[in-house]
Amino acid sequence: MSVASNPGPLVEPVDCLSPRELDRYARHLSLPGISVLGQRRLRAASALVIGAGGLGAPILHYLAAAGIGSMTIIDDDVVEASNLQRQVLHRDADIGRAKVASARDALLRLDPELVVHTMCERLRPENALELFSSHDLVLDGADNFATRYLSNDAAELTGTPLIWGTIFRFSGQVSTFVPGQGPMLRDLFPDIPEADSVPNCAEGGVLGVLCGTVGSAMATEAVKLICGIGTPLIGRLLRYDALESDYSTLRFSPDPDRPPVTDLAEVAVACAAARPGPDGRDPDRAEEISVDEYRAHSSGVLLIDVRADWEREIAAIPGSVHLPLGMLQIEGWSAVETIAGHPPVDIVIHCKSGARSGQAVQLLHDSAPGSVRLRSLAGGIDAWSASGQETVQSTDQTMAPGAHHM
Questions:
Q1: Rounded Cα gap, residues 40 and 69, in angstroms
Q2: What is the pLDDT of residues 43-81, one digit of tens each?
Q3: Which among 115, 150, 261, 340 counts the fewest CB atoms within 10 Å?
């Protein structure tokens, strides 16, 4: 399969632009390659945007400003205060609202004639194929591996162009996958990584303005595909290092030995594993304990918080002791003995959402005495707060052990 420089315009143009639109998009109309015809194509195009968060915010904002005709936003999350550092569609007044509702309001403020559909749910194997088939292209701003691979497989099965991006801390990546015109995500990264193999933004952090850089690059790819201009990132992975101000491009080709995607069976398993049960607990992990279970049997349990200092200053679970994951990685079991003051028998470890605490449990398994029971609090302090339990602010290195009951 040869890699196409540009597969050509994605859509037929609308018949004409209104006087309002001619005025609004005047700076596009004078651009070689876009002009009136390209703007008419943009107005005819429909895009599915997965996620209204860090990447979704600039994607949605710039595609709406560019004059795309209609967009569907799918996201099951609500706006939180910690989102506002990078998710520029949302405002302080939107905290607690569904992200799709907040995003829709922001886009209609920008262009009241834009058609916006919202879905307050996750992209799932059950809805992916229909959604991909009913849009001209898809932009994936998801924050987890399962959804990214679901997007790739749905794109391959439906033949829908997919623009993919990812961010972490100070770096980001962008590529464009057009089935039949070049390689796909599985040609570059064949296997779905474990869900917690890389910390998410909440745990690893992300530079807020990086989302704008990467999301804007994804929106640019969409405009290029729709209008049939330039050279999209087909068969190329754009990499950006914000700290070094460095852009680099990795070229890759279709893997002739990769089996084609024929169904969503494999990715359905990954999606199911990425969705915890109603209590926040992953039923496949025996070393987890739900918030309700912990509260019912917390007497004599040592609750360890492995988050960073600044996270505890915002909120901490009463009775927890502080042992940052970085210290635990260096000192191992001896660090637990130091903060416990006595040989602990039953230990529950928590973080923000469960990924770091799961790592800590695995780390301690080999060094802890065989009599010690180690478990991770499912859903972390997020699940604790969601269940209506009280938190406190803490500026101390540790909170006094011994008060592990409600």
A1: 9
A2: 999 999 999 999 999 999 999 999 999 999 999 989 988
A3: 115
How many Cβ atoms are within 10 Å of 392's Cβ, its own excluded? Answer: 12
Q: Both tokens of residue 389? A: 């339990």
- List the one residue out of 121, 115, 53 whose CA is nearest residue 90: 53
| 3-class DSSP assignment, residue 293 | helix
End-to-end CA distance of the chain: 63
Residue pair 154/132 in contact by the 8 Å Cβ criterion:
yes
Residue 286 has pLDDT above 90, yes or no: no
N residues, the chain: 406
Give the lowest-confidence range in 130-134, 265-269, 393-397: 393-397
CB 354 within 8 A of CB 380: yes
Strand partners, 176: 163, 234
Q: Assign 3-class secondary structure to 160-225.
A: CCEEEEEEEECEEEEEEECCCCCCCHHHHCCCCCCCCCCCCHHHHCECHHHHHHHHHHHHHHHHHH
Active-site residue list: 201, 351
Q: What is the pLDDT of residue 404?
A: 34
> Does the pLDDT value for residue 198 go beyond 80?
no
Question: H or E stretch including 246?
Answer: strand 246-251
Phi, psi (rounded to 5 degrees) for 76: -105, 10
pTM over 0.90: no
- The domains of the chain, with CATH numbers, are 19-274 (3.40.50.720), 288-386 (3.40.250.10)
Type of residue found at 152: N
Q: What is the DSSP secondary structure assignment for residue 102, as one 8-state letter?
A: H
CB 218 within 8 A of CB 240: no
By the 10 Å C-beta count (0-12 exposed, 13-18 middle, 19+ buried), 66 is classed as: buried
